[in-house]
Amino acid sequence: METLTGLEGGQGFRYVLARTDFRLVWFAQLAGQSADKFVMFSLIILAYGLHASSFQVAVTLLAYTLPALFLPAFAGVYADRHNRKTTMVWTNLGRAAMVTLIPLSSLLPGLRNDLFHLLLITFAFSALGQFFSPAEAAAIPTLLPRRALLTANSLVLVSMVLTLLLGGALAPVFSRIDTYLPYWIAAVLFAVGGGLIALATIPKNKPRLDQTSRSNFQQLVTEVREALDFLRASPVLLASFAQLSLTVPVLFR
């Protein structure tokens, strides 16, 4: 693909999309984020439809948001130390499996109008999703030259906004056709995203020199602790991080 370096100076949209591996990852992101937003808006509709209660909607959104408060630091360190391709593939496939539990559980009379199991699935679904974005963010610089990263990140941000609008517009439409149709669509999109990632060639993480003296788990805990200590040392940074943790994962994850 190096023959494409002349396209738009080797850094334009045509150039980055002509790179097969980045294109696969980007389309996988589009599929996964579309699925995630389908699920988010459909959960609001489903939770309200159980007993027409705004409290249930709030609790469901809380279950969706809570993992974004506690897991990003751990997920970032994990993505930095483990195979990013494997992480993205299994994150997508795992979410596909979890999403199907929502319509399947509705077939059981005792669970059809139950909120608790919906909260558990929502929490687990959101927790697993926290691992995709750090792995993707760490993988993109290995797929493109430095001069093209700004364009690549712009595409990623554009896709975040588009999928948010798409999910908000289409989830109510599909829910009117069938309450559980959006979840089946989301499961298919997640599976497609996992398949696209599997087709991409993503370089493996380079082994770190400090891994020889400590176990992977010990090093993981140490790095997470260092990140948290750094945040606690700056109240302003901690407050900003908390605000971003609440808004960005819900709207743009």
Structure description:
With 253 residues, this protein is mostly helical. It has one domain: MFS general substrate transporter like domains (Growth Hormone, Chain: A, Up-down Bundle), CATH 1.20.1250.20. The chain starts with 12 loop residues before the first helix and ends with a helix. The N terminus is likely disordered.
Keywords summarizing the entry:
Growth Hormone, Chain: A, mainly alpha, 0% strand, globular, 253 residues
Which percent bin holds the helix content? over 70%
Compute the number of strand runs.
0
Overall pLDDT score:
82
Q: Estimate the strand proportion.
A: under 5%
What's the CATH H-level homologous superfamily? MFS general substrate transporter like domains
Give me the CATH fold name: Growth Hormone, Chain: A
CATH architecture: Up-down Bundle
Measured between the Cα atoms of the first and last residue, the distance is 30 Å
